[in-house]
Amino acid sequence: MSAKTRTSCSCWFSCLNLYFILVFLPLITLSYEHQQLTNCNLFEGSWIFDDSYPLYDSLQCPFIDPGLNCLKNGRNDQDFLKYRWQPTDCDLPRFNGEDLLQKFRGKSFMFVGDSLSNNQWQSLACMLHAAVPNSNYTFDRTRNRSVLSFPEFEFTVTFLKNGFLIDLVVEEAGRVLKLDSLSRSDQWKGVDFLIFNSYHWWIHTGSLQTWDYFQVGDKIYKEMDHMEAYKIALTTWANWIDSNIDPAMTKVFFQGISAVHYHGKDWNEPMVQDCRGQTKPIEGSNYPGDRYPGEAVVKNVLSNMTKSVYLLDITLLTQLRKDGHPSRYANGEIDCSHWCVAGVPDTWNELLYTILLQK
Question: What transmembrane ranges does the database entry give (predicted)?
Fold first, then answer.
């Protein structure tokens, strides 16, 4: 073989290797990462300190309710902003708000539920705004609805307050929860991504309870086991999804049960009153306290649906974050049920982003 032929072969193999590195290696890497995420339980893991967090400056975000903007309200310890959720068997991709806006250009997202849904909506609004700070946006907020739009991307993300999902009607006898009636669902139709939530209002008792009676069919009950009522109501919602949603057009998620931290004995610190003064997560991947009764209800209802609904199973990862609540920095009462923004709800949106990338 002549020297010229050897040189040509060498150049050809070098070019082939370069082509493989530039074209196929990234595809192989992406395929491996996708396979790793597909086989990974995203909701089993632990919190690790990461100095690259938070993903945005809450003081620069115009969408946060006064009671959730913990830094603005004087919280000085900031380590709670520095923790990242690490699944046991995989790594989450870094959240990229501009990528989300580009990939889902022309799409609409809607969070429907109670104040925990609003918590997640505010977090995502801040994450997107921080990703494209020079992009124009429109923002409209009324008593029960918040709408943020990015015209450049034809992208809209909405929060719609509806804590029970089913009907609460004021009648002559009083406030009636109609467990098998759902009449305010027109606004859910035509949305590309729906993220529902309902739980915390169902466990209220005494003066916090916002209803007087339950109704199923023609029968009215002064009292009923709250989890039994919750299951009937959630089944009513599930039946609506099964009858009205086309999975090819709309993807549906259900935000799982978010933890509260009002009793230190729940995490083996009986001398601790509540979340006040807590500055670090619980270490490891196990929570010593009890599970919430609503978890089994949610999983049972979702498992019996004919249409696919993805559960954002955030219970464990929130149980481990006794440090993430507004506590005394809630612009009012002690709050150990909602979450500082920035903070824990950012992880819910990182998980949502990860799942959307898989799909």
Answer: 12-32
| Active site residue ranges | 115, 335, 338
Read off the pLDDT of residues 213-269 as tens digits, 9 standing for 90 and up. Answer: 999 999 999 999 999 999 999 999 999 999 999 999 999 999 999 999 999 999 999
Bridge partners, 94 (sequence order): none
- Its domain, for residue 151, covers 20-356
Main-chain dihedrals φ then ψ at residue 286, nearest 5 degrees: -125, 140
Q: Considering the domain boundaries, does residue 93 fall inside one? A: yes
- CA–CA separation, 230 and 250 (whole Å): 25
The answer to whether residue 15 is domain-embedded is no
Give the pLDDT band (50/70/90) at residue 29.
very low
Inter-CA distances, 44 with 88, 94, 278, 337, Å: 6, 18, 22, 21
CA neighbor of 349 nearest in space, from 82, 57, 93? 93
Question: What is the number of domains present in the chain?
Answer: 1
Question: Is 6's pLDDT higher than 80?
Answer: no
Euclidean distance between CA atoms 53 and 56, whole angstroms:
8
Q: Are 159 and 118 in contact (CB under 8 A)?
A: yes
| 311 within some domain | yes
Q: What phi and psi values does residue 103 have, to the nearest 5 degrees?
A: -65, -35
Q: Please provide the average confidence, as pLDDT, over all residues in the chain.
A: 92
Q: Residues 65, 139, 252, 100: what is their CA dihedral angle, to the nearest 10 degrees?
A: -100
Q: How far is CA 235 from CA 96, 192, 240, 302, 318, in A?
A: 35, 22, 9, 9, 25
Structure tokens at 115: 């104040």
Q: Return the percent helix, strand and coil in the chain, to nearest 5.
A: 40, 20, 45
* Section 7-27 average pLDDT: 54
